[in-house]
Amino acid sequence: MKIKFIFGIMTVFLYLSACNNNEDKTKTEQPVEEEPTSAVVEEEKAVYPLTGIEAEAEINQRAVAVMINNHPDARPQSGLHKADIVYEVLAEGNITRFLAIFHSEIPDIIGPVRSARDYYVDLSKGFNALYISHGWSPDAREKLESGEVDFLNGLFYDGTLFWRADHRKAPHNSYISAENIAKGAEAENISLNEDVEPFKFLTKEELDSLQGESAKKVVIKYDNSPTWQATYEYNQEEQNYTRYSANEQTVDLESEEPIILDNILVVEMQHEVIDNAGRRGIDLTSGGKAILLQKGIAEEVHWENQDGRIIPVANGESIEFVPGKSWINVVPNIENAYSDHS
To answer: Contact, 220 vs 335, CB < 8 A?
Structure first.
């Protein structure tokens, strides 16, 4: 009896040991489930909204629109080469002025700064820009003083935010800087931290499939005199345009850096003289004929005013821009103003 009891105990012990070993073996042999590999999500890079060029950091700054003089006595200008968008429009007679929209870069020296006109104010509204001028026409004054846009005017800050350069004579010698714009905005309680609605830009594949007529050298005439003509020449190697006034390349006064452009839009708008001083009224809203230059190619299109911006369109669809800087020439008659010298 005793031997049977001991044998029974040993049998139970061996059975339990075997079970434990099998359990351990099962645990060991079970495949270890790997943690699911999460997809690597690339961080979306910040892009300047008016150029489509990659930015080094997040962008939270307001656009600044500056009236810049284009009288021969004001050439070469300062800071114009850093503007993302430039509108060139007739002021009085055959003299054009520039509305330079700065966002991706705001220069240390900008000018010569000139007086406001109502249609330039309206163009600045498409970017919710802080509007900078030195002086104003009656219609522009009414718009600005009514609060349609935030503004700084050299009439009130001559010798403080604005300074007079000693190498030029008035009224071609008023200048302002990025630092002084910031000071003026702070003094007037104007926000400089506002988002800018982006343009639409072409992808690389779309850039490679652009179609149209060759346009290596074009001239925009505001008068028969070369003084009031803008010439654009295409650089095949760099694939961009440089600009000339009166057959002299448009460069920065201080650095001598040239104006480099990726989009040139020539638009026809109705003009009329509205007073004895020769000031103009210009129809910014009705749309009309346009020619778009990109990558050495010219395309006949139309323009529309979309939320205050002048945009090229074809077949009812907006046309995307080439990433880079843009220049918009507003003319009374595109057939008289535009000529191809390629």
So the answer is: no
Instruction: Tell how strand 248-249 and strand 240-245 pair up.
Output: antiparallel
Neighbour tally for 169: CB within 10 Å: 10
Task: Please report the sign of the dihedral spanned by the C-alpha atoms of residue 101, residue 263, residue 288, residue 114.
Answer: positive
Give residue for tokens 């990109």.
294
pLDDT of residue 42: 55
Distance of CA 156 to the CA centre of its chain: 29
Q: Which amino acid, one-letter code, is at 255?
A: S
Residues 103-135 pLDDT 10s: 999 999 999 999 999 999 999 999 999 999 999
| Beta-carbon count within 10 A of 22 CB | 10
Axis-axis angle for helices 138-145, 118-125 (nearest 10): 40
> Hunting for tokens 């010219």 — which residue is that?
298
Q: What is the pLDDT of residues 280-332, one digit of tens each?
A: 999 999 999 999 999 999 999 999 999 999 999 999 999 999 999 999 999 99
CA angle 131, 132, 137 (to 5 degrees): 90
Residue 82 per-residue DSSP state: G
Q: Is the distance from CB of 266 to CB of 326 less than 8 angstroms?
A: no
CA distances (Å), 121 to each of 133, 161, 217, 310, in order?
10, 20, 31, 14
The pLDDT of residue 24 is 47
β-pairing verdict for 217-221 and 338-340: antiparallel
Q: Which residues of 219-255 are buried (b: 16+ CB within 10 A; e: fewer)?
A: ebbbeeeeebbbbbebeeeeebbbbbbeeeebbbbee
**Which residue's entry shows tokens 């009085």?**
92
Query: In sequence order, what are the beta bridge partners of 232?
Result: 218, 243
Spell out the domains of the chain, with CATH numbers in brackets: 64-340 (3.50.90.10)
pTM for the whole structure:
0.86
In angstroms, the CA 20 to CA 16 distance is 6
Q: What is the pLDDT of residues 203-260, one digit of tens each?
A: 988 998 888 899 999 999 999 999 999 999 999 999 999 999 998 999 999 999 999 9
